[in-house]
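Quick one: OadG family protein from Candidatus Onthomorpha intestinigallinarum, structure tokens please.
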Amino acid sequence: MKNSIVKSFVLSFVLLLSFVSFAQDKVESAEVDANTKPSSYDPLVAQKFAVDSESQTMVVINENENTVEILSRTKDGFEKTKQLLVDNAEGRHDVFKIYVPQSVAVYEHHIVYLASNRDSSFVKVLTLDGVEKEFFKFRGAAQAFSYDVSTKLLYIAGSNAAGYNVFVIDATKGFDNMTIKGSPSYQYIKKMKADEIAEKDPSGAGLAIIAIGTVFLVLILISVVLSVLFGKLMVNIQNKKGQKQPNAVISDNEKTASKKTSDISGEEFAAIAAAIHLYNDEMHDEESTILTINKVAKAYSPWSSKLYNMNPYRR
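--- reply ---
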């Protein structure tokens, strides 16, 4: 009897502890659920596919056709219900101006897609049936967007070679009444070298001094190189030529030519003058001075008569 009472008491105590532990776990889990808020995190990355879980509508970016396509759920799978052309690219050569879809998403039963080219972007808000509700266009290339459920703001960002851009669209009044007025935005554009130089040297005096100094420095270097290197080279060449030239042998004619004119007598001058005179006379042939004039009689010939070349006059 006594043992049965003890066993029942122990069993009751164990059951009581189990009930208390179970109740405590329930209370803690309820507190955790009450303190936990639904996550509103949406990654700021480009998405090529999006789906609405309630209507089972899927939105796809078709890069081959440059379109945004809406697919509806059927019994056998999906069916394309609408195809939206973002920009006509056929036959165009200005490729940098063609808008290309970058990202798509579905928020609050609305389709949002982003398209951009090299210099600008636009955002369109559509219904699940493909009816356009909102259109926003802004400068700067963008590639992705993200929607913050807690603040009802749509963040758009992108980058290119010139910098990056950040835009915000206010959706507190719903996706049918979005606004971009008063929304924060930021645009960073990398300055070109010419702009940086213009800021540092607005008058251009520094640039002019550098340019003129560079020209004169190059001219000085060229003159030094030519005078030092090529000058020594030419001197060495001339010295080598002088060393190779043999000693000149003075001939008898040169010795005679070096004789002073004061040593020549008058008879020698007369002989030289006579020789020159005879030489000049022999240069011309002897010609006859008799002129003979012969008169040639020309016989008459009817072949040369002009009378036969004239047409007869008809009365």
